[in-house]
Input
Amino acid sequence: MNSKKKSPIVFQLFMTFLLITLLVACGGRLSSYRGSWVEEKDRISLQAGGPHQGSWQTRDLSIEYEYQQEPQNLQISGVVNLADYLKIMGTLDHLTLEIQLLGANGIVQDTKGIITFGNRRSIDSFGKMSFHSRLDLSEDTVAMAFSYDGKVTQGGGGAFKSSSGEKAEWDFWKVPRRQPLE
Output
């Protein structure tokens, strides 16, 4: 095969790869947490009416939230506060906050993206990291749970390297998992 015939094939393969990559990036993740399990300590039972207030905390962050449940939807708002050990890194590359809608026994029925913070900005530049969202609910939804995925770096978006030459960064997350075997 000569190089004139090879170039269009390579170009087509490259463009196909690029298109698939863009579709995946814009469309969100391909996998779902549906069917996963949330530990009882992380479940927030939903009560009709409201507003109801609460707080949820992990090693990485805390969320002060308020929600109001109506028959078909849930209005939720709140403020996210990062733990001090994350703040000292200086730069928030990203923090994606999601809500898992749960059925009986803490099984995830649906995942709803709430907000993404970051874009390699200084943590100090955020002020309050607040969110507000309205989510559709199925009639089987009895609880919710927060999940998150984030990354912080030291310096300007990961450009800083420690004295040992290592990049100073930290990934943190809390997501549903498989139900343990009984």
In short: Residues 3-27 form the longest helix (25 residues). The radius of gyration is 21 Å. The beta strands are 44-45, 49-57, 61-69, 73-82, 90-102, 108-122, 129-136, 143-154, 169-174. Confidence is low (pLDDT under 50) at residues 24-30.
